UniProtKB/TrEMBL annotation:
Reactions catalysed, as given in the entry: thiamine + H2O = 5-(2-hydroxyethyl)-4-methylthiazole + 4-amino-5-hydroxymethyl-2-methylpyrimidine + H(+); 4-amino-5-aminomethyl-2-methylpyrimidine + H2O = 4-amino-5-hydroxymethyl-2-methylpyrimidine + NH4(+)
Domain Thiaminase-2/PQQC: 15-210
Superkingdom, natural source: Bacteria
Keywords: Hydrolase, Thiamine biosynthesis
Family: Belongs to the TenA family.
Protein name in UniProt: Aminopyrimidine aminohydrolase
Pathway recorded for this protein: Cofactor biosynthesis; thiamine diphosphate biosynthesis
Function: Catalyzes an amino-pyrimidine hydrolysis reaction at the C5' of the pyrimidine moiety of thiamine compounds, a reaction that is part of a thiamine salvage pathway. Thus, catalyzes the conversion of 4-amino-5-aminomethyl-2-methylpyrimidine to 4-amino-5-hydroxymethyl-2-methylpyrimidine (HMP).
Organism of provenance: Paralimibaculum aggregatum
Amino acid sequence: MRPTDHLRALAADDWQAATRHAFTDALAAGTLPPEKMAGYLQQDYLFVDGFVRLLASAIAHAPSLADSVPAAQFLAVITGPENTYFLRSLEALGVASEAGPAPEAAAFQGLMAEARGSGRYELMLAVLTVAEWSYLDWASPHADRAEALPFWLGEWITLHSGDGFAGVVAYLRAQLDAAWEGLAPDARGEVETMFTRAVRLERAFFDAAWAGFPVRP
Ligand SMILES: Cc1ncc(CN)c(N)n1
């Protein structure tokens, strides 16, 4: 079994809950109330801030230039089309682009800062892999519906599905699989803990979004 399949299996219940969630089902069906999407995007924009720092740190810790190139290209997507998606969507929804962090966003920011501060490539990859692989998993079944939705719903699916994004996830998994092979049992245990914590936080983030984050006008 691939190490990343082993890691996902450790978090199977939270993974299933995060990737087959009422929030994303409603988003894809076009029935998600705009104020719930607005609250989610305000909080997720805070997530993106920490994510960019973590991804940049992983680039700095990649074992070779070749190992860093796909991540650097993905960083340009996040800071380019994804960043403008947030700004356009929040404007269209009529809410501020800045908000204070809800507990679920703060917890994720904390985990990403911890992974970044560890200076350990495999712990950075554990969080990055969960974040992108879980989104590929929920979004892919809805990819052919995206066109029919308002752009603030449809583009969120498009950004997290398709061959290009699947390639990002394949790259992250391959990096983590390769790093795992060189780890001692203790270090593997730390990766397992970081991975399962991240999956739990993905689930909690969608649970909170579905309940409704407070929205800053
Ligand atoms: C909380 C969370 N996790 C993952 C992703 C995928 N980029 C996201 N936007 N937000």
